[in-house]
Design goal:
single chain; Phosphorylase Kinase, domain 1; Aminoglycoside 3'-phosphotransferase, Chain: A, domain 2; two-stranded antiparallel sheet; 9 strands; globular
Amino acid sequence: MATRRNAEEVAEALGEYLGGAVTDLRRLSGGASRVTSSFDLSVGEEVRPLILQQVRGDGVAQSGIVPVERALLEAARSAGVPVPAVVAMGEHDRLGSGWLVVERLEGETIPRKILRDPEWAGARVALTAQCGRALAAIHSIKPEEIAGLAPRDPLRDPLSFLDALGEVRPALEFGVRWLGAHRPAAGRTVTVHGDFRSGNLLVGPDGLRAVLDWELAHAGDPAEDIGWLCAPAWRFGGRGSVGGFGPLDELLSSYSGAGGEEIDLERVHWWQVYATLKWATICALQASTHLSGTTRSVELAAIGRRVCESEWDLLALLGVVPPPPVSDLGVAADVLPPFGRPTATELVEAVREYLEEGAMAKSVGRAKFEARVARNALLVVERQLRLGPTLARAHHERLAALGQRDDTTLAAAIRSGDLDADWTDVGVALAASARDQLLVANPAYVTSVPAASA
């Protein structure tokens, strides 16, 4: 498999395919579907900075993915979308089941830097309108002109995700139920990018330089891209509805002004709810790859405890306000267990301090990042040891008030519609549960800027 080959083998194969010498080949990321690397290609005296994207996996399931993406990038470029130029592609060869080489452009993709650092202040002013124009250009591409571009049912993914999780999440069932009851009339079918958000936008001091990562593109409703960009998950602490950097009315105005259809706020709101639900299920699925043993990773394990952030956002988008938290947090956890000292909390605290003073202080790059993730995971354990008994008792009291034995029966009752008459009470109970999970997983998220509807 290409992604497992060493750098020398990849560089040699690339050089043969591209007719030059490959140097400085460096792996940049390893996402769920692609491995991305940067390199320089020397042909005579010319040196070109390029990017290699390799598809994970082999076999029939991966066939045809790269040609579709190449066609999309070329069509997008012709439509005026800022994208990197395609240099070469291949399938089922020495580089794996599929690969694509594009030009390497300069810019920043890390959302928190773009949202906070002074050097990107000018970009923040320009980005919202630029995103609107880019989306209008993407949506002008006729899906039937891209061979292999499949349509996608917006409700199929969350439902199939929920059933595949092996974990009961009543709040997500609540969201799916709401989506089914409030589905708006679809707009015209267009080419949808599928992952248009902060992190996939290459930004320079002047604003948007390129739209990246097209592997999730499909035929669908243009409002899907707008709702995804405006989902709370992609705001990264910023106050703007659009990626944390801008207002929704400016995005919609620039979008329609560039030829996009008029999209009303109610329709955008539905897609924001959809996006938030879908991101929650994606996080849960990422954690499941660790729990199943497929990919053991402290980062994937920690992601599982972030699902409650999206549940909190989801319920806020639906206008649900939780009651105040219980007042006796931590009281039950003060009882000293019969195991002596150090207690479990004190042992976890010691390991966490070791990471902070050792691995985090001395490591660099990926090792430093993983040490920080491990430290944060231990902080979650510390808070659960301290708050868990009281929060668990409150949760079971809420279930009993709804006439439910546990989360499994609650989720089933929501899906079947048995609790539709008690919709408000169910929503409040779920919001309280999400809030209590956040008090353990990420207390700062409870006090952050709440998700707002469109």
